[in-house]
Each structure stands twice: as structure tokens, then as C-alpha cells.
Amino acid sequence: MSDPKPSVTLTIDGQTVAAPQGTNVLEAAKLVGVRVPHFCYHADLSWEGSCRMCLVAIEGRPKLVPSCCEEVREGMVVHFERPDAHEARKSQLEFLLLNHPLDCPICDQAGECKLQDYYMEHGGYASQMPRDLKVHKRKVVDLGERIVLDKERCVLCSRCVRFCREVSGSHALQFFTRGVTTEIGTENNQPIEGDEYIGNVVDICPVGALTSKDFRFKQRVWFLKSAESVCTQCSTGCNVRVDHKDGVVYRYVPRRNEAVNKSWMCDFGRDSYRLEQEDRIRGPLVHDGQSLRDADWDEAIALVARKTREAIAVDPASVAVIASPRQSNETNWIARRYAREVVQTPHLDYRVDGSHVKTTLMYDALLRRQDPHPNNAGCAALGATPGAGAGDVEAILDACFAGKIRVLHLLGPEVLTARHDTARVKDALAKVPFVVVHAARNAPLLTDLAHVVLADASHLEQAGTFVNGTGRVQRFTAAFAPAARARPAAAVLAA
User: Fold this and answer.
1) CA-CA distance, 462 to 276, in Å (whole number)?
2) What is the mean pLDDT of the chain?
3) What is d(CA 455, CA 482) in angstroms, rounded to the nearest whole number?
4) pTM for this structure?
5) pLDDT tens digit string along 397-413?
6) Beta strands in 239-284 (DSSP E)
7) Cα(154)–Cα(182) distance, rounded to whole angstroms?
8) Contact 485, 283 (CB under 8 A)
9) Cβ-based neighbour number of residue 266 at 10 Å
10) Using CA atoms, how far apart are residues 235 and 379, in angstroms rounded to an integer?
């Protein structure tokens, strides 16, 4: 960890504050609870100073200055609430609103719009602009498979332009024309293609000029509840906010963590909220000799316990447990104890598909990693690995094929769904008399090979921790209760 930057002491509206060297005045103001209006400034983009909403007075300076572009200095005295600064911000807000459409009732940004918030805090005036003199621009501009642009709502803050230039590198969005007709758009009005992070421009747009096709007109944000979570689509573990209502997830939004993902996430991870809700297994299933049928938990747990006891009585090594790099540390810890202390089998592993060697390898140049699981590093730290005289997952599959494994307990369906040698897996598991799988969603091989399916809660329905590719332990919280009769694997193992 790098040494902290030396502090600079300054005064903001009569309050003394120590801020790290290199901080701008706007960020320093937050340390004393002063909320400064701003549109163009974003903590993870370059300083711009174009919207002029954060103008402040600094003693010794002849004119008001944008606080987002002013670095703190020792002994600086700043006045946010001086009358001339307050009036300048109010006037600038009116200037931005001159041509803004009055379509808040149908705007997706309503409820989290900075223009609305700042008007209530810093505006409060009657518009002097005759409605028939407003500049009109295109309202529904299709920018490809993800984004819709409303050029009338845009306040030209340039956040999206800087994101495409500085972060994703696509340069997809640019400014065009000059003066009052200036607008953002794409070259020759072409759809945006090839930028796998373009969804972030919706998150950073402060006024609803850029909206998501996926979320457009689906929900009002004030009806949604939120939970802090972690994306499970790779070992980066981007911090996300889960917005949901009545047990249905409507979107993932990146949650800022400067050390992990800053304010961004990839579009692949953004779309994954749908996977958590598709083909859900809503209760335990037991094979009746012909197919899987619904069962209650008492029947399913009793059957698993009986078959496992019978196998242990013959030889504890005839039971194998495969942990899951998609389960939490807490669940895998219980699985390790279950294998080591209860069953006392040496056959335990988590390396389901070889992805554990890719945990630190990047898939792209920004955030996404090659390891598609969120917790390979956590499983390794817990020691969910084979005991003396036992092999890895490949050896367990070989033992299954040889008829040496009587009970195979899978903490997740990854062996069935994430491997490329499906035929080998199918042949091996077909030789096992009893296969138990914890699964939240249906998968083709489940119905073919599992004797008991224990309906698992998704990571959105439970709390826990993952360890990402850099070794950082990250907590996620439950957004809502498990669907129907599903239960977290940790609770089932404990039972």
C-alpha cells in the first residue's frame, strides 16, 4: 500500500478541514458536510470545469472559480455560501434549464436526477424563458443495442464523452456543432458497437439524457429497494448495487470502490442479473427412478443422510465432495468441515474446471478477468483441497468412472455446466449410485444425472463474502428472501 499523501489545511465556510494534497476543493468540502452542486465533475474522470455549477469564492482570487478544478492549498479560505457565489450557481442552473424539456413524469432519471435535486436546493425560481423559444433537438436517438439518447435533456456535462475517451477508449460519443445547437452523438449517427463498457454512460449521466434500453420504462426508482452486493461473473468482483422490487431484480448498478472497480462494471456483468432469475429451482427434487419429482425438505435431507451413512459404513473414501467457486466463503467453509469432520473423506476439491489458474489473468484491459467465478481465491484460502492420498477433481471423476465413488456431493452444478468435456463428466457421473447437487437454476445434465437436487438460494438471497483475484475479501448482503422453498447450501449442510 502506498504512503498516504500529506494533508493540506484549509478553511471552508468557517470550518477548518485537512484534505490530502491533490484533492480538489469540491471533494474537500464533502469532509465538512458541504454539498456542492456539479454536473461535469466525476471522481473517476478528468477535471473539466465546463458546467460552472460548482463556482465558489476563494479569498485572494478576483473572480469566482469552479471548485472541481481548484486544488487545495495550505491556508486557503473558501466561501461556498457567499452571496455572489450562491447567486452565480443559481443563475447557471437557470441557464442549463432554459432549453431543458419538462418531461420529468416520463423520464427514467426522475427520482435520481441531479437537475431535479439541484433545482430544489439551489434554484426555486420562475423560468423567464418563453416556451416557444426553446431550442428543440431529437428526443429518441437509438445508439445501438443498449443506449437511447435524448438530446434535449443533455446538459453537455461531457461525462459520457470523457468516459469513452479515458476509460473504455472507444471514443464512441463526441460533441458536434457549436453554440446553442451543440449536442453529443456518434459519428454519422452510427450505433455504438464494440464498447463492452458502454452501459456506464447511463450511470454517470446526471440528467437522463442517456437511458438504458434494458431498464427503460420498467420501474420508477422510488419504488425500488437496494442491496449492496458483488458481481459474480468473474474474479474481479465488481461492487454493485442491486435494485429490486417484490423479489424481482431490475438492474445492477456499479457501486464505487476505488480499489476494485472504481465506478465501473462491464456490460457482461451488468446483464447477469437476469441469470439469477431464469429457470429457478423452487424446491428440492428427488429422483423416483424415472424422473425428478418435487419433494419436501425433510424427505430430501433424510435421503441424502441415509445414502451418505450407508456409503461411509462401507468406506468414507467412497464419498466425494466438490466445493463451488461460486459459493461464499462461509458456505465452502461448512462444506470443508462436512467433508473432513463429518464424512471424513479425503476426496474434496473446488477446482471444478481449471479456472483457478486464471484468477489473476485479465480478459480485457479494464476490469474483466478470465476466471468466470467469483470465489476461486476464497476456496484456495480455505484449503478446500484433497486430503492425503486423494486427487483433484480430475481424479474424482476418474474414481467415479471406475465405480469407486458411491456418493458424489456437489456444492454447485459447475462440474455439469462449466466444463468442456461434457461427455466424460456424463459418463463418469452415470457410474455413481447417488449424486447430490445444490443448484439454484436448472441445467440440462441435472435432470439426467442427479438423484437429489437441493434447491439453493442465489447469492442475491443470502449474505456472505467472496475473495477476489487480488485477495480482497468482499462482503455481499441479501437483497430479499430465497425464492419459494429454496434454502442456502450452508443451512442445508448444517441440517
Assistant:
1) 13
2) 93
3) 10
4) 0.91
5) 999 999 999 999 999 99
6) 239-245, 248-254
7) 10
8) yes
9) 26
10) 12
